[in-house]
Amino acid sequence: MHGAQMVAFNMQGYGRSLWLMHGMFRANGGCGYVKKPEFLLKAGPHNEVFDPKAKLPVKTTLRVTVYMGDGWYYEFRHTHFDKYSPPDFYTRVGIAGVPADTIMKKTKIIEDNWIPTWDETFEFPLTVPELALLRIEVHEYDMSEKDDFAGQTCLPVVELRKGFRAVPLHSRKGEKYPSTKLLMRFEFV
């Protein structure tokens, strides 16, 4: 409970696990130190510890609106997604956290557009917002093959500020794209 702890991560490849780790450590200004919430540091009055599978009441609801995306035209070759037509983008938005909060939702597919406009709103009831990460992934729909990856980011829910935001996207390796962003709105209701 006292002193400094250090954890070494041994990540063997790129993917969702690494994206979640990057998201968690974006908290506290991205300095690499994230303090545990109080309920993880102290035992309860009868020496009980936090159980992530326990049924808890909803503390807050995060409302996320995905308006539009831009920047892929500058980041990728014009034949990267589809050889003969503009890409068909969709966005997956969800929560990674305790089992009761974990969910993913998907926007509609916007066909043949480098600057997709979704204008869709999703609500996420959160029982433990202190441990929740907002996951955002953009993919390009491909009818005949696996959908193409177009960007991702993970953001700690406790660090989100309400209002309109230009959310930068990252590559599979976690490198920030210079131009690719999503216009989003966050609200706590």
From TrEMBL:
Domain C2 residue range list: 42-171
EC number: 3.1.4.11
Cofactor: Ca(2+)
Principal location listed in the UniProt entry: membrane
GO function term, MF aspect, one: phosphatidylinositol-4,5-bisphosphate phospholipase C activity
Top class in the EC scheme: hydrolase
Compartments in which it is found: Cell membrane
PROSITE patterns: C2, PIPLC_Y_DOMAIN
GO BP annotations listed: lipid catabolic process; phosphatidylinositol-mediated signaling; release of sequestered calcium ion into cytosol; response to stress
Organism lineage: Eukaryota, Viridiplantae, Streptophyta, Embryophyta, Tracheophyta
Domain of life: Eukaryota
Pfam families: C2, PI-PLC-Y
Domain PI-PLC Y-box: 2-40
The name this protein goes by in its record: phosphoinositide phospholipase C
Membrane topology: Peripheral membrane protein
Reactions catalysed according to its record: a 1,2-diacyl-sn-glycero-3-phospho-(1D-myo-inositol-4,5-bisphosphate) + H2O = 1D-myo-inositol 1,4,5-trisphosphate + a 1,2-diacyl-sn-glycerol + H(+)
GO terms for cellular component: plasma membrane
Record's keyword terms, sorted: Cell membrane, Hydrolase, Lipid degradation, Lipid metabolism, Membrane, Transducer
